[in-house]
Amino acid sequence: MGAGRARCQEPRRQTHVHSDGIDAQSGLVEVLAGRKATGPIRESLRQSIAAVHKDAYMLAVRAIVTTDFRALLPQICVPTFVVVGEDDRVLPPSESAYLARMIPGARFAQLIETGHLCNIESSESFNTVLREFLAPHRDLATTLHIPSVYP
Length: 151
What we know:
Elements (H helix, E strand, L loop, with lengths): L27 H5 L6 H12 L3 H13 L14 E5 L7 H10 L4 E5 L6 H4 L1 H12 L3 H6 L8
Parallel strand pairs: 1-2
C-alpha cells in the first residue's frame, strides 16, 4: 500500500477453535441461536458445535463464503426443501427464500422463534415439516440401488 493510504476492512468475527473442535464458548452459540432459545437448547447447541472438527468446519466455511452458487441454483433437479429459522442471523430468511425461489420446485419453510440450527433448536417443528416434505418422495429413496461392498 502507498504511504498515507489507510487500510479499511470490515471487522471480522473471530471463531475460536480448540485443537480438536470449535470453541463453543466464543459467542458462536449466540450468533446461531434464536432469541428465545432456552438454556438447555443453548447447551445442546454448544455441545453440537464443540463436536465439530475444526479443519472440516474451516474448509466448509471457506467454500461457502468464497463460492457463488447462484447460477447453479436453477439447474438443481432433485426435490429440494429449504428450511430456515426466523431468527437466523447466518443466512437470513430472505436469503433462504431466494434459494427456494431459484431452485425449480423447491419448497420453503420458516420456523418461528428459532435460529440457524433450527433442526436442534426446534427439533419437533423441524421434524414435522421435514416428514411432510419427504413423504411424497418416499418412492425415490427406494428406487436407488447401491450394491453392497460386502459379499
